[in-house]
Structures are given as C-alpha cells and as structure tokens.
Structure prediction request, 307 residues.
Amino acid sequence: MEELTRTNHYGLDTFLHSDIVVPYIDSFGSVEQKKKYLPGCVSGDIITAVAMTEPDVGSDLASMTTVAVEEGDDVILNGTKTFISNGFNCDLVVVAAKDMAVENPYQAISLYLVEAGTPGFKKGEPLHKLGVHSQDTNELFFTNCRIPTKNRLGNKGTGFAKLMEKLQQERLLVAILATTMAEFILEWTIDHIQKKNANNGLKHIPQAIQFALIEMATEVKLGKTFLEKLIADHMEGKHIVAETSMAKYWNTEMANRIANCCLNLCGEFGMLEACPIARTFRDVRVTTIFAGTNEIMKGIVAKSLGL
Prediction:
C-alpha cells in the first residue's frame, strides 16, 4: 500500500478491494460463498465494493434507510447508496440494509452480497470529485432488487457488529495512506527546495524554511512510529479500536497540514498541475472524512476514556 501510494496516484490503490471489502467475505462468508467468489477476487476477475453510506446518512450507520425484506427464499432490497468507491467498476457489492420491523437499529442491519447485473440493481454515473480522480465513485440504486437469502453474510441482524469489526482495519489503512502521502510530499518538497537553491547558487536553505521542514519531518516520524506499533498490535489480534481512531484522526489531520505547508513552500509552482503536490493536496483531503469522519473518531476515543 505504501509503495502504491508513493506513485502519487492514490486512486489506483487496490487496498479497498483486497484489505477492506474481500475480508468481509473471507471472515463472514459461508463455504459456498467463499468458493463462489474468492477465486475471482484473488485473480482480479471480480472487483468488489462495500455500500454503507447513503445520501442522508454518513457516519451514523444505524440510521440507514436501505430496506431488506425477506420473502420466502429471497431478500428484496430497496434504497440508495452514495459515495461508493469502486462503485462503477464493481462486479460484487457488500450491501448493508435494514429490516425496518426490528426496533433496535443496531440489530436490524444485515449484510448482503449483490452481483452486478442483478435486476433492480443500477449503478449511477461516476461522480466528479475534488480529488482521487483515478478511482471510480458513484451512487448505487436498489429498486425491488431480489437476491437469494443465501447471499446474506452471516446471521440476520449481525451486520452492524460486522461493520464495526472490520472498520478497525479500514481506519488503520486510511492512517497508513495519509501518513505515506505526507511522507512522499515532504521528501519531494525537500528535494525540490535543495535543487532550487542549487540552481540559484545558494549554499544553504534559509533557516525559516529549515525549521518548517524539521517540524514536518518530526510530525511524520511521530505518526509513523505510532502506526507501526498499531500495525503490529492489529496483526496480533489486539483490540485497539480507540488507538486506531486516534491514529485515523491525528495522522490524517497531520497529512493535510503537511500538504498545505509543502504547497506554500513551493510558492507559485505549487499552483501548477506540473507540481505533484497539487494532486496530493486534493487527494489527501478526503482522508479526514471517509471511513468515519474525524469527529466520529474523537467520539469513539471519548467513550474509551469514559467521557
């Protein structure tokens, strides 16, 4: 993921498919579902997406309005999902939907596997975004979309718990993404300033610029050190929801600060598309928003502190 991010084409990252969506099937899928879908997910013949966010429901997943009604051996889905990454190119979608007959919203959500081409499932046109232009993002529409009940991931009403379980890894990945973006643009900026100084016959970088670069380098180092500890803990199966929320919040905010400062240090050149920071500046902005906004991350940490 770090190496792909360093190409400065964040939208080409495959981590959404490999490390966010497919683990739902691997962890919660039946033997039949795994045999049917995982080989294609591995070979690349199946592109996956996960559909949680709705037009009027972002971080508050329990308030989603996409409805799932069981009718015999089938489930009928109705609703709209939006800002779905991989949504246009996907062959298979993990869809979160609610049984409105269940009073507790946290026990009403289930996850379903919906294949592209299923009658009643329609993809909207790709959305025109501020950044991340190389990744398709769009709306998904479900209108009396009928799928077999066997396409449900796990037991009925366990969807919210499954989403919460997998969001720890997703948020950790976002923190890794943002930190690598910060690392990349800082390295590029240092190299750019050194070359510019050499071309202008200057032997030393002005102290004010040195201090700015040192402050940013310190922030990146702090963020990466924290991340490496969390990655090790996550791989050992430790419960680090609060710590991951801290990293998602702090590291993405840090990456945005560094993108802004590096752009300033580049002066007018930073405003040109020829400057790679222009792309990173746009792309890094969404990291504070997706996988749960940073305000949601602070709320999770607040609960862990008993506040």
